[in-house]
Design goal:
60s Ribosomal Protein L30, Chain: A, 7-stranded mixed sheet, globular
């Protein structure tokens, strides 16, 4: 009985640390680069800073709401907001003119210094699966996806792959307020076909496609990982 209570307590703590919400982005100016924040239930959360061309973070757009999915990270506030790490940001398509808040610089609220350490790609062998992730309700590809596709295509050609299976999914997201949002129908097929077309354009043969029409279930913790296309390269 005690172990059951401990499991329930651990699950409750994990959910409390996970934040998923839809809100207007807020831009805070600093003496270096702007910070991006979002407010939920009276609390400010730090999303990221104005990115450069090499950044994995892509700034949300004013005049659009954003879906924020992330885990509360330990440590002090950043730019006045609680940091979330990792964090997934999805720009909602609909225009919302109310999403236009820009905050002036404040003493002591500085943008963090972003440091990047180069990581070498590990050598691949045998069957390998590459994963392409998406923003909510979107089939557009983020710039960072290009490196995933290029690596998958290069590997398939290097090993003369007998098959390259592209499998697409759509998903649901459970927000912290209990609301459940589901991606639109047909999205899994469009994601799959788009990736297959790009791979073929990169010279990959033996590309086969499949997709799951039903939305992946939402758990409020791993939902961003369910919006995906898997590329399985088999020798």
């Amino acid at each position: 009985m005690r172990w059951c209570f401990s499991l329930l307590l651990a699950a409750a703590v994990a959910l409390a640390q996970q934040r998923s919400f839809v809100s207007c982005p807020i831009v805070r100016d600093t003496k270096t680069v702007p910070c991006f924040l979002a407010e939920d239930n009276g609390e400010l959360y730090f999303l990221g800073t104005q990115p450069d061309a090499t950044s994995d973070f892509h700034a949300p757009q004013l005049k659009h709401e954003v879906m924020v999915e992330g885990r509360v990270a330990p440590g002090p506030r950043v730019c006045g907001g609680i940091p979330l790490q990792p964090v997934s940001i999805s720009v909602m398509k609909e225009i919302n003119l109310a999403c236009s808040t820009m905050l002036p610089p404040e003493p002591g609220l500085d943008a963090p210094v972003v440091s990047r350490s180069a990581t070498a790609d590990q050598p691949l062998s045998g069957a390998h699966e590459f994963t392409v992730l998406y923003s909510f309700d979107d089939d557009d590809l983020a710039p960072a996806v290009n490196s995933v596709l290029t690596r998958a295509a290069d590997y398939a050609q290097r090993i003369h792959a007998s098959s390259v299976k592209v499998a697409g999914y759509r998903a649901a997201t459970l927000l912290s307020n209990g609301n459940r949002l589901v991606e639109k129908e047909g999205l899994a097929e469009r994601r799959t076909q788009n990736i297959a077309t790009l791979l073929r354009g990169l010279g990959v043969g033996n590309v086969k496609v499949e997709w799951k029409s039903e939305a992946e279930p939402a758990d409020g913790q791993n939902d961003p990982a369910h919006r995906r296309v898997n590329i399985l390269v088999t020798p």
